[in-house]
Design a protein that fits this description.
The complex is a heterodimer of chains A (111) and B (114). Chain A is mostly beta strands and 111 residues long. Helix content of chain A is 0%, strand content 60%. Chain A has no helices and 11 strands. In chain A, a hairpin with a 4-residue loop joins strand 7 and strand 8. Chain A is globular, with a radius of gyration of 13 Å. Helices cover 0% and strands 53% of the residues of chain B. In chain B, strands 2, 4, 5, 6, 9, 10 and 11 form a 7-stranded mixed beta sheet that branches. Chain B has a 4-stranded antiparallel beta sheet with strand order 1-3-8-7, with no helix packed on it. In chain B, strand 7 and strand 8 form a beta hairpin. Chain B starts with a strand and ends with a strand. The chains are: A mainly beta (111), B mainly beta (114). Chains A and B meet through strand 4 and strand 5 of A and strand 4, strand 5 and strand 9 of B.
């Protein structure tokens, strides 16, 4: 059974800092891994999608890496801004396309 | 923790038929539910936001007359794909909002339209 964990559970940083969010999963036989952003009261916003054959994806100030063998993914956010404050979710899709989501990391970027 | 169920978990239908997918929050009340879909090798995309007792809010590019959403109670939202076509084949997932910023996700429904 796939289990996904995320650390830290919460993070508070001053504006401008670079930061790393971590995601771990127990079953390396994944189809893809996605990072989402969740704002209070809103639906998910997809940030980055990494296929199982890929090692990283980049979009603007965001970079996500994937190491299947160790069951880890990291989301790197460069030059953080107050608008980046949200909950960040990691989700792993198994080959049956059933999603397993991590519990999320709540990020606060202080001005 | 809070549980959200979806039914059916998978469905195969003929082109032109309608398919209804249910999303239920089993042990909490959800005033807001979200519907997502994911095409193969693509990211999960928000389709619509469903609020109990009011009309759903659809994302740009999602046809509201094709994807009918009904959120008649605090524990049930339904998505009906009307006149389904093969291009509607996708993975549909719902989430239910159990608090100010806590969402719980259903296991998803795999729709295949022949």
């Amino acid at each position: 059974k796939q289990e996904v964990t995320q650390i830290p559970a919460a993070l508070s940083v001053p504006e401008g800092e670079n930061l790393v969010l971590n995601c771990s999963f127990t079953d390396s036989a994944i189809y893809n891994l996605q990072w989402f952003r969740q704002d209070p009261g809103k639906g998910l916003t997809s940030l980055l999608l990494i296929q199982s054959s890929q090692r990283e994806q980049t979009s603007g100030r965001l970079n996500a890496s994937l190491d299947k063998s160790s069951g880890r993914s990291t989301l790197y956010i460069a030059a953080s801004q107050p608008g980046d404050s949200a909950t960040y979710l990691c989700a792993v899709a198994n080959y049956g396309q059933n999603f397993v989501f991590g519990p999320g990391t709540r990020l606060s970027v202080l001005p | 923790g809070a549980v959200v169920s979806q039914h059916p978990s998978w469905v195969i239908c003929k082109s032109g038929t309608s398919v209804k997918i249910e999303c239920r929050s089993l042990d909490f009340q959800a005033t807001t539910m979200f519907w997502y879909r994911q095409f193969p090798k693509q990211s999960l995309m928000l389709m619509a936001t469903s609020n109990e007792g009011s009309k759903a809010t659809y994302e740009q590019g999602v046809e509201k007359d094709k994807f009918l959403i009904n959120h008649a109670s605090l524990t049930l939202s339904t998505l009906t794909v009307t006149s389904a076509h093969p291009e509607d084949s996708s993975f549909y997932i719902c989430s239910a909002q159990g608090g100010v910023d806590t969402q719980y996700f259903g296991p998803g429904t795999r729709l295949t339209v022949l």
